[in-house]
Amino acid sequence: MxxxxxxxxxxxxxxxxxxxxLTKEYFALHYPNVEIICPQIKSSPFKAIDQLExxxxxxxxxxxxxxxxxLGGYFASYLAEKYRVKAVLVNPAVKPYxxxxxxIGWQLNPYTNETYQVQAEHIDELKSLxxxxxxxxxxxxxxxxxxxxxxxxxxxxxxxxxxxxxQQGGDHGFINFADMLPNIxxxxxxxxxxxx
Length: 196
Known about the structure:
- This protein has 196 residues and is α/β, with parallel strands linked by helices.
- It has one domain: Rossmann fold.
- The chain is 32% helix and 20% strand.
- It is built from six helices and eight strands, in the order E-H-E-H-E-H-E-E-E-H-E-H-E-H.
- The chain has helices spanning 18-30, 45-58, 71-83, 120-128, 152-158, 181-187; strands spanning 3-8, 35-37, 63-69, 87-90, 105-108, 115-118, 139-144, 163-167.
- The strands form two sheets. It has a six-stranded parallel beta sheet, sandwiched between helices.
- Strand 7, helix 5 (152-158) and strand 8 form a beta-alpha-beta unit.
- It holds the Pfam family UPF0227.
- This is Esterase YqiA.
């Protein structure tokens, strides 16, 4: 079986984000037989989940791992619980529905120049995707205390029994993310012998 990593970017982001690009570059260099799949996520939560599930289900004969950043971390926790696969969450959103009311209306994705609407029903969709029960052995969670967008303590509390890495300072983009990629590969148990 081949190993595939589904990278799930955050709100108003894209596969061209810094962390996504660094992840693709790192694995291409060190684990060339691991495929990174990083789609442009749909703007509505339910459509995004349908999109991500269709990727996992279409390629069901592979060993899947997930990496999710911010809102992508929230989606990754939903998929990890449903499909019982390992996930690395980077400054993950824990209760994004509490923040999304500030974004209702037209949005412009700075990476893609796509304009789209955040609608009130998207808040309900996000809430319905929340995972109340967390499986301790599925997650590596990395947060930085200087995250200016999300309260890192929410993730630290929710995933306190997972492999939790709390770094002082930093920001929402996760400063020095490249330094964490060897650690991520180790956690996902990806080695050169099982990717040939």
